[in-house]
Amino acid sequence: MGDRGGYDALLLVSFGGPEHPDDVLPFLANVTRGRGIPPERLAEVAEHYQHFGGVSPINQQCRDLLREVERGTDLPVYWGNRNWHPMLADTVARMRDDGVRRALAFVTSAYGGYSSCRQYQEDIAAARAAVGPTAPAIDKLRHFHDHPGFVRPHADAVRAARATLPPGGDVRLVFTAHSVPVSMAETAGPDGGLYQAQLNETAALVHAAGTARGPVMPWDLVWQSRSGPPHVPWLEPDVNDHLTALAEAGVTGVVVSPIGFVSDHLEVIWDLDNEAASTAKRLGLDYARAATPGTDPRFVAMVHDLVRERVDAPESVPRSRLGTLPVWDTCPRGCCPPPRRGAP
After folding, report:
1. N or C, fewer C-beta in 10 Å, the chain?
2. Is residue 184 domain-shared with residue 269, that is, in the same domain?
């Protein structure tokens, strides 16, 4: 990695999740603070976690990814979460105590937008402020929605999922990502619309690679995991509504690919493996859910690749990309403004 470009650590930043039944409500309070989520919605989501013993798989998935990433870098690797232990501020304090002066941050979100990019940067800034003036500088790595190490594992998972369905029939490929308020989507990126544009580019890339040597499957991009006050418009259609529309149109089977996510955490295994699968069964649709990258070696190598882009001389390291949308190391000033909470 050359002279490491002045960086002396790598920080994995993720969403976090409860690891005990008593953690669930405090965790959800952290997630939803200031968002005006109705109490009945919180109770509903809490019940989802209790179906899994009050444990979200996301923290163990981060531990697994951390272990694999550590094997391929000479930088010390740390891990901090937005919403649950290990909390980001505690991790930044430990980095300071270990003598870290400047770190790179890999965030487990591939896309631009307020909740998928800028909010993580705000969390990092808040953690540094809590630690004080001796906190290390922390620079977030770029978006990776079109990196081969992200696209190709998704594509192979689509192919494997399709192989589990009966041959023939009218099968549709349905890509999903986390829904966000329409106002947030409209202001994503420096010029608006970045979240949806990147997801559409990822979907097209995964579709092309995942169906290149198999049956043709038309594709759609839809949304899942909506939360928030009901009067606030969010991106639609919801995956369950879309499955209903497909069944009414004569589609016989679906492959659902959660390209909005990097691992099979609770929103994937509940919203897709439980709710969407139940909807498909009720409608008589054959259903298969494609896996996420997780610790696929290509995804782990992607993290190392993103680090190399920054620690080596930028002009000497070509960027591994399959798409054409612009990317940047430092987000333009004013992009992805915070949402006006509760606004229609």
Report:
1. C
2. yes
How many structural domains comprise the chain?
2
Per-residue pLDDT for 136 more than 90?
Answer: yes
How far is it, in rounded angstroms, from Cα 252 to Cα 247? Answer: 7
* Closest C-alpha among 41, 17, 40, 43 to residue 30: 17
Residue 179 lies in a domain: yes
DSSP state of 55: B
DSSP structural state of residue 22: G
322 located within any domain: no
Are residues 280 and 306 located together in one domain of the fold?
no
- Give residue-wise pLDDT tens across range 291-338: 999 999 999 999 999 999 999 866 666 789 999 999 999 999 889 998
> What three-state secondary structure class fits 181?
strand
Residue 311 structural domain: 4-144+296-316
Residue among 114, 129, 118, 54 nearest 84 (CA): 54
Pick from 305, 242, 319: nearest CA to 276: 242
DSSP codes joined into one string, 189-257: SSSS-HHHHHHHHHHHHHHHHHSTTS----EEEEEE---S-TTS-B---BHHHHHHHHHHTT--EEEEE
